[in-house]
Write the structure tokens for this entry.
Amino acid sequence: MIFITHSGEETQSLGTRLGRLLGPGDIVLLFGDLGAGKTTLTQGMARGMGVNPDEYVRSPTFTLINEYRGNFPIYHIDLYRLDSLAEIENIGLEETLLGCGVSIVEWAEKLIQNPGEAPALGITRRIEVEISDLGENERRLEIRPMEMDAQSHPIFSLQ
């Protein structure tokens, strides 16, 4: 599924629509350059999952994980400051990623050792979102459900 947004507000709105379709156990991997809109999309997803609009959803660049309470636990993870897969494995993310909340991972490319391979940490069933900056506030978002059955997840109804 490919979407083009023309502003931060449109990116958040798409995130809200996506967030409404997510549920416990879902893992969303965000790929994109610095400033592409990963946190903006995450802000919308958090709203779609019931996070209070007064709560500021910010990038966890320095804390690594921010937890939000919506309809269920939401874990916003940022791997930007980690340098290697070994370092990521050492912080013990598996329990969070494979737990009962929704995990949203910025800089997910750090989980993939070789192009075309599945991410590390036992992540198989996931939603990958590739965000590209097209300039002038336009973003291209490609949303790819991976290892998911079209009959079993509402993400396939996103339009």
The chain has a mean pLDDT of 87. The first strand starts at residue 2 and ends at 5. The beta strands are 2-5, 27-31, 65-69, 73-78, 102-106, 126-135, 138-146.
